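Dear Dr. H.,

I hope your travels went smoothly. While you were away I took the liberty of generating a structure for the chain from your last submission, since the lab meeting agenda had it listed for discussion. I wanted you to have the full record in hand beforehand rather than looking at slides cold. The sequence, exactly as received, is reproduced here:
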Amino acid sequence: MPRQAEGVPVVVSTVSQRTVPLDIEVIGNVEAYATITVKSQVGGELTIVHFSEGDFVKKDDVLFTIDRRPLEAQVKQAEAMLERDKAQLSLAEANLARDTAQQKYANDQAVRYRNLFRKGVISREQADQYQTTSDVDTEAVRADRAALDSSRAAVAADDAALRNIEVQLSYTVIRSPIDGRTGNLMIKQGNVVKANDVDLVTINQLQPIYATFTVPEERLPEIKQHMAAGKLKVMATPQGSSEMESGELTFIDNAVDATTGTIKMKGTFANPDRKLWPGQFVQVTLRLGSERDALLVPTEAVQSGQEGQFVFVVKRDMTVDVRPVVAGPRIEKDQVIKSGLQLGETVVTEGQLRLAPGMRVRVENSQRTPG
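The corresponding predicted structure, in token form, is as follows:
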């Protein structure tokens, strides 16, 4: 009885007020900014692997070399065919020039003797002979032009074939398309590979990098509203670590997942120290902005009952009253109170299980101000 008269021992805190960040905290996972699967575009023996598994490589670094000798031989053969057809083209051009000159001379002669025939100087037979010669030379010129076109087409085909083989030859040196980290080597040096057959290695780009997460669909209007004022900050903390990486919200999916009622988002992080790793689970904090003059109490002060959330408020006469409250977001160890409390009021943070409305309490601690 004497202890009851003294009051129930409790730990209390004072309602404080300050500017707090508006955060959405969820679990997400890290995703490579780009994932490239490297394959060979030509067949042959894999003669050299220029990196070790797990190495970081730069764009255009040489990764693999494939045996060049078969394609080098094909290049020489194509070059020889090109030179041969170029010679044929030169011959066709010379033949055309020669026959064109002959055709012009024969045509002039045919015109001259036709005029002589009209004047009765020569016979029809002589005039016809010169006309026939002119016609034969004209057809020869046509044949030369066809041969010239054929030679030009052959040279163009040879040139295209040579370029194609040279492109194929360039594929014997495989370079990295991005900056990133190499994974497991699928094909070892000395094996024969086929064109576009098996994966040689996978490269993940880690700088920058994504953190992918989902938020409830009811938060989407709020997020869009704050995005209209500027880019939103995203923080990611790897599990088991206290170091937080900072980035920006760069992607919101174009549809809500009807199964889960959430929408997918991505934050992009510079990841300068490569602390974020693809596949890693992270605690993601999406910062929407800040709320000025928010009321705060320690999180443990807020209790839940059948009628909702409430706190025990210590009155001046050292008795307690039950006060329904509307709680806002949690800020580290403190809880934002939207309504139900006033600045400076005292709330119970420990000992609530032994309390009922109107009971007298005894403060066992020095009051702690949230924040």
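Two observations you may find useful: Residues 69-118 form the longest helix (50 residues). DSSP finds four helices and 20 strands in the chain.

With kind regards,
E. W.
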